Recover the amino acids of this structure.
């Protein structure tokens, strides 16, 4: 049984924050939802869509009297937000976030949240889309998805339990993970693929015959490059925040790709087939395991 | 009005050859369809599925009396196939192929087909899937898709027209293109993305924690890596056949990716955002143009 959140404060009412608000509302898990963002027109839109009850552009007002504060701003804005709300946070307010990289967020929390750090539960819902903004929010965005929480030494056990239950109420499976491990796993499966897709599309867009090139692209290209439509600011922030882990994966990729190029230069058909076969086997196993 | 093909010979009855057979049959564009492959069980399956009328494992028998021969074998087998059928080809038989790289096929045709080379029309339907085999064949696989033909100096105009009309009957749009240009365009939009997807999946599969890594992969990863389930032999052959153009694109990609890595190492957030924004703009324009 989930004890209702009397007042939920969502800082950053975009796809993720908005979908969480909708999901909790649909399940009766929340009383009042207060939204906070920089741009008033987005907040008014969120009210019009019934995603939030009321709004303020002032983070201090937004967190006043909140049971739970969800920080869903771009990673580059998290530390300033922590700094802004820390002085007025109530002693019973839980804080969580939804950032795609955790180590940087935890370091920012330690620097800025002071005594409130024990009630900060770092979180990351593995959901989202190329779409962004509150108009894309859906109450089933987290249904059947995983939410990773990365508690650290100072994290309060009760805070962790309550935030985990909040996510479970949306239909998500909550998994706890070491934060450095989270950052490496996400660098491999999400951050690096985004960088590769952005790089490829940018390369083709800069070719002389780019109109024709895109014209003859097939379904495989569409799927492969879809993530290059993701929000540039969000991905800039992820890169900066998770720089070390991304660089590690990126360098490993460059080494692998260089090996493939050398096999191609050497016309080593057997090496090419062997690499492709191993990859196909792994991808097919993943498809089966994930019920694709 | 399409003049019916009395006898169509499909050499290589897989996804593409099988789908062409089904599409032409559905439109009444063909009388008898003869299938030829190396493995008899695949051919029997094609008969059982109603894709072909009869079969032989002997290419010479397969092309006997055929109006049109469609060569749909892996690129690495095309030249040997040309060599096998050339001595017995009738003077009115048209030959076409479906290979994903054209220069190598044309060179093989020039070496092997002799006087029949004028009736060889190089073709490439931009359709397909990670799936392969005749069981995946569909009569609407080419509907609304593009088929590129790359006629060369010696190509007979009537042969080109007839093969083009054959593809149009399947619902495809037929576009003529210079063969070297075709090979560069496809290297950029299809061959390079396949190599990147194969490389990434292979890299992750070789990591110690690969089970967990795949477990926390999200939808973006699924889309990005779907093409890594493609047939390894087919892609080995494409790499060997279109080696020069692929290497050109691959080297350009390595340069671009190295630039991105340097921006990340330098924590140059502005450069990252600029690259991501340019890529998103190009990808969004492509999505709009392609009606995605």
């Amino acid at each position: 049984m989930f004890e209702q959140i009397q007042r939920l404060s969502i800082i950053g009412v975009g796809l993720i924050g908005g979908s969480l608000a909708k999901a909790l509302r649909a399940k009766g898990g929340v009383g009042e939802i207060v939204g906070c963002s920089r741009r008033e027109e987005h907040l008014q839109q969120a009210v019009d869509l019934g995603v939030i009850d009321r709004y303020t552009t002032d983070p201090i007002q937004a967190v006043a009297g909140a049971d739970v504060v969800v920080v869903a701003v771009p990673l580059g804005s998290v530390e300033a937000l922590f700094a802004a709300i820390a002085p007025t946070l109530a002693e019973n307010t839980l804080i969580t976030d939804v950032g795609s990289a955790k180590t940087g967020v935890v370091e920012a929390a330690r620097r800025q949240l002071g005594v409130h750090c024990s009630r900060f539960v770092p979180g990351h819902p593995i959901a989202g889309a190329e779409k962004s903004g509150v108009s894309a929010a859906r109450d089933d965005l987290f249904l059947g998805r995983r939410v990773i929480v990365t508690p650290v030494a100072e994290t309060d056990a009760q805070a962790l339990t309550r935030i985990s239950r909040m996510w479970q109420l949306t239909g998500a499976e909550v998994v706890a993970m070491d934060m450095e491990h989270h950052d490496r796993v996400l660098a491999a499966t999400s951050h690096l693929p985004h960088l590769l897709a952005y790089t490829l599309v940018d390369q083709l867009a800069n070719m002389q015959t780019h109109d024709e090139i895109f014209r003859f692209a097939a379904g495989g290209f569409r799927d492969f490059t879809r993530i290059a439509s993701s929000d540039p600011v969000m991905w800039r922030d992820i890169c900066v925040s998770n720089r070390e882990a991304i660089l590690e994966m990126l360098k490993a990729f460059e080494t692998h790709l260089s090996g493939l190029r050398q096999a191609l230069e050497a016309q080593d058909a057997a090496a090419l087939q062997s690499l492709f076969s191993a990859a196909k086997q792994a991808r097919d196993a993943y498809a089966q395991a994930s019920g694709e």
Remarks:
- The first helix of chain B runs from residue 15 to 26.
- The mean pLDDT of chain B is 95.
- Chain B touches chain A through 94 residues (CB under 8 Å).
